[in-house]
Amino acid sequence: MADFKLIQLRSAADLRAAAPHWDELWYRSDVSAPTARAELIAQWIEQFAPRAAFRGLAVEHGGNFVAALPLVAGGVRPFRIGNLPANAWGLCGDLLSDPQANLQDALQPLAEGLNGLSWPLLRLAPVAYASKRWQLLLPALRQCSMTWHVTPIGQVGQVVTQATWREYESLWSGNHRRHLRKARKRAERAGQLTLDIHREFLPGQVERLFRLACEIEDQSWKGRAGTSLMRSPGMFDWHLRQAQRLADWGQLQLSFLRHEGKAIACEYGYRAKGTYYSAKVGYDPAYAHFSPGQLLRAMLLERFHNDGETARVDFWGPLTSATAKWSTQTYPVGRITIAPNRIPSRLMLAGAAACERFRVRGRVARPESIIAGAPRKPAPMPIARAEL
């Protein structure tokens, strides 16, 4: 234990300075989302919490980081608590751990660092709480006499591409297959249908293509509701900075479905470690009779099944009927609320857990929909739990 040293990073600038060590740990970890890399976390902090306290806890061993967790203050004064740098616009934080290290020893200084923070509670969400990295943190918290409460939020769908395209396609419901077949024939009778994927970019091309994708999104219901990136102050510029950095790393993918050369659907995604993350999708409602969003999804998945590079697709959000019809497995996400070893914190956690139980019992819904985040309608194809 003496060889493990806890380091506290206190600003976005500190995090950027430590980026080589942080990102090297990310590469070794089982976290594949590139949004957990140092620069994208720093961008999130500057956009959404520029005045909030930041604590990046890292455990150093032998000159390398072997565990790390970014936290930012949230809530309303005086009830500030520690959160992950994550919100509805971007999920930019996770627990990183080196699978080659002795994690029981590596995570203990991290837990001690969490116990020493001034925040009365830590509210970490969304996290894949059933994954090995988070499950190994819990005994370390117990060693520090900390308490916690896990609240399941839902499931996230994935497509594993081990099967052939035909084998995967056969798992769809009959209605889903027929709908896509008819939509594609209808679109191809009206003109040429092509899939346009960009993973390498010339200077200035990221901004031009990203703007095109956002203009397509803005034509949808999101534009009318004022929630598209183009109509949300600051969001286009922030996402563009994120996209440009992902492109620098070779981890950005911008995809377009084109009909007679015109882009009618788009997807903003990122890929790393064999996983593709679907971050944002949109389509032109003038072409809704072609089901362009679903056609784009089907053509992308076919490409992923055949490219030999993509092991899985992660839909990067709560399981819905729109993603369940494609998913072959799911994994649970939730919220871990942690109380440091202090009486006021324990009381706050007990109150929060009681409120959660009361809220769950008060819902008028099936228990499995509340506790496990299951969709209201059963998925039309077999879905297995992912091994994380």
CATH architecture of the largest domain: 3-Layer(aba) Sandwich
Largest sheet: 14 strands, mixed
Task: Decide which structural class fits the backbone.
Answer: alpha+beta
Count of spatially separate domains: 2
The CATH topology assignment of the largest domain is Aminopeptidase
- Under CATH, the homologous superfamily of the largest domain reads Gcn5-related N-acetyltransferase (GNAT)
Overall geometry comes to globular
Tell me the series of helices and strands, N- to C-terminal.
Answer: EHHHEEEEHEHEHHEHHHEEEHEHEHHE
Radius of gyration: 22 Å
Under the CATH scheme, which class of the largest domain? Answer: Alpha Beta
Please give the share of residues in helix: 25-40%
Can you tell me the residue ranges where pLDDT is under 50 for at least 5 consecutive residues?
364-381
Whole-number mean pLDDT: 91
Strand portion: 25-35%
Q: Would you count the extended β strands for me?
A: 14
N- to C-terminal separation?
27 Å
* Helix count, DSSP H or I runs of 4 or more residues: 14
Features:
14-stranded mixed beta sheet; Aminopeptidase; 27% strand; 2 domains; alpha+beta; 14 strands; 388 residues
Structural description of this entry:
The chain has helices at residues 12-17, 19-28, 38-48, 103-115, 132-143, 165-169, 174-190, 205-218, 221-225, 235-248, 292-307, 321-324, 343-362, 367-371; strands at 5-9, 54-61, 64-74, 81-83, 96-97, 122-127, 147-160, 193-198, 252-259, 262-272, 275-283, 312-318, 329-339, 384-385. It is α+β, with helices and mostly antiparallel strands and 388 residues long. The protein folds into two domains: 5-154 and 330-373, Aminopeptidase (3-Layer(aba) Sandwich); 163-310, Aminopeptidase (3-Layer(aba) Sandwich), CATH 3.40.630.30. Helix 3 (38-48) runs antiparallel to helix 10 (235-248), helix 4 crosses helix 5 and helix 8 packs across helix 10. The two termini are 27 Å apart.
